[in-house]
Amino acid sequence: MFGRLGTGELILILGIALVIFGPAKLPELGKAMGKGLNEFKSHANRITEDVKESVDVEDKKDK
After folding, report:
1. C-alpha torsion sign, points 33, 36, 41, 42
2. pTM of the entire predicted model
3. Residue 13 placed within a domain
4. Which of 4, 18, 22, 58 is the most exposed place for a label (fewest CB within 10 A)?
5. Which domain holds residue 48?
């Protein structure tokens, strides 16, 4: 149902953000969103590694 955003949708979102936040705030907003996304990815990767380690420990206990 919901696929990837196309070029038209991205342009529309950027235009709305430009009207709401103004041209001076957009770089600051983009930088904050980028930092947040990187932090989210980092935590998600850490959780994935912890789960894999937990599964490996459980597999070793079963043998």
Report:
1. positive
2. 0.59
3. no
4. 4
5. 23-62
